[in-house]
Amino acid sequence: MDDHMPKPLLKKIFEILIMIKGIHKKNLRKFLEAIWFRLKTGCQWRMLPSWFGKWRSIHNRFLRWAKKGISSLMFRALQVPDLQETMCDGTIVRAAACAAGHEKDGNEKQALDRSKGGFTTRIHAVTDALGNPLKFLLSGGNRNEIVFAPELVSDVRDPMVLADKGYDSDAFVSLLKEQNCDVCIPPGGNRKNPGSYDRHLYKERHLIECCFGKMKWFRGIFSRFDKTAEAFMGFLELAGAVLWTR
User: Fold this and answer.
1) For residue 2, what are the CA distances in angstroms to 36, 229, 235?
2) 242 CB contacts (<8 Å, ≥6 apart)?
3) Cys staple from 59: which of 45, 80, 203, 237, with CB 3.0 to 4.6 Å?
4) Cβ pair 165, 190 in contact under 8 A
5) Which residues contact 34 (CB under 8 A, 6 or more apart)?
């Protein structure tokens, strides 16, 4: 990856931020470059190169942005989705030891828990027909994907929904049909009377796996180093915004 934030992304982010009232414009480009560096490398905040400025000020500014939903606003403003199909799935990322120990809340509230992979976070995602991310949710790595599926697709209306057999639930399928969606989900192994699905269409689901693969090129996403779910979500949405500019 380039050492600097891609110019198309930087330009579009500036266009979005200009429209937001209350954004502190001082050293804005340097701040965005520092966040880009942190996303790429996953380094500790205190290890940011000195030319970006004081690491504590950058860290606090990023946390304020995450709490105000500015990263979410940037992520959504860049989306121009192809909604002929949508795909939902989840992936697990390993959390470093430094991600634990948030003083105010337990690990569960910060989307951290233990699974077979160790200390992990699960990323739940919805993508459009081209595999571009539309929405993210976070949970502990031990939580099942189907538990968060209704919230994940709450904004989905009308398209074909592709998902793996982990989403094969009568309640979930009924919810999608109420939202006027067609469904392409292979039956689970415990089905006594498994239904049919379009095997050819289901092959398109590889696009959401490719989306996860692209996002995990960023070390800040491949492993979680952030203590709070808000901070990790901020980096996740920034990585999603990068994919929309490619």
Assistant:
1) 10, 27, 17
2) 6, 9
3) 45
4) no
5) 48, 52, 53, 58
What's the pTM value of the predicted model, to 2 decimals? Answer: 0.91
One CATH from 3.30.420.10, 3.40.50.2300, 3.90.850.10, 3.10.580.10 for 85-244? 3.30.420.10
Nearest to 243 by CA among 70, 125, 68, 92: 125
Report residue 95 as tokens.
């959390």
Q: How far apart are CA 157 and CA 110, in angstroms?
A: 29
Other Cβ atoms within 10 Å of 172 Cβ, number: 20
Q: Looking at the predicted structure, is the pLDDT value of residue 230 above 60?
A: yes
> What φ, ψ does residue 179 adopt, rounded to 5°?
-90, 15
- Kindly state the DSSP code that residue 193 receives in the 8-state scheme: S
User: Two tokens at 153?
Assistant: 């697709």
The string of pLDDT tens digits covering residues 72-122 is 998 999 999 999 999 999 999 999 888 887 765 655 678 998 888 789 999
Asked if 222 and 93 count as a contact pair (C-beta separation under 8 A), the reply is: yes
Q: Quick check: 58 and 28 in contact, CB under 8 A?
A: no
Over the stretch 32-61, which tens digit does the pLDDT of each residue have?
Answer: 999 999 999 999 999 999 999 999 999 999
